[in-house]
Amino acid sequence: MLFNGEYKMVHRDNNGPWVNKRDTVIVNVKGFTECQYEVTPYYLVKNESFLISGNKLTATCKIEEITSGKNISNVYLFINRTAFVDESSTGNIAKIAVSKPSDPENIKLEMDLTDHTEKNLYARIGVQINGVNDYLFSTVEKVK
Fold first, then answer.
1. Fewer CB in 10 Å around end: N or C, the chain?
2. Cα dihedral angle (144, 96, 71, 36), rounded to 10 degrees?
3. Residue 2: strand, helix, or coil
């Protein structure tokens, strides 16, 4: 919650999986105020799908390059008991990676779920980009 007034939104350098844009935006808050801040991502995760067959979870996706200049270092499949699934969640129960994928348009990640007997499992794909601290993620999907 913010009080009515004028605020400066300052974007930090190299913060996020998008093209760096050091910028300051003036936002005038009066009641309900929505502020759109557009960024240009390096990549987008598209056509992601998750399928459990037996004890194997298979995730596939296409990673589309939007802006050149940064390479993909790893693509991860994360799973968790809750919908809070990312690289820093302490509750993540497993992750696997493909390092430096040769064909980003045809990513396939497979995970053995034999030891994961949880009633509910959520999954998402994360893309790690060279020189960028934050990951680019697919949406979270309940797979079990």
1. N
2. 30
3. coil
Q: How do the domains of the chain map onto residue ranges?
A: 1-40, 43-142
- CATH number of the domain at 43-142, out of 1.10.10.10, 1.10.150.120, 2.60.40.1120, 2.60.40.2060? 2.60.40.2060
The model carries a pTM of 0.84
Type of residue found at 117: T
DSSP 3-46: -SEEEEEEPPTT-SSB-----EEEEEE-SS--------BSEEEE
Q: Note the pLDDT tens digit of each residue in 72-116.
A: 999 999 999 999 988 876 666 778 888 888 899 999 999 999 998
- Spatial separation of the C-alpha atoms in residues 132 and 59, rounded to whole Å: 23
Nearest CA-CA partner of 76 in 62, 65, 84, 86: 86
Partner residues linked to 94 by β-bridges: 79
Q: Give how far Cα 9 sits from Cα of 12, 17, 56, 82, Å.
A: 10, 19, 45, 32
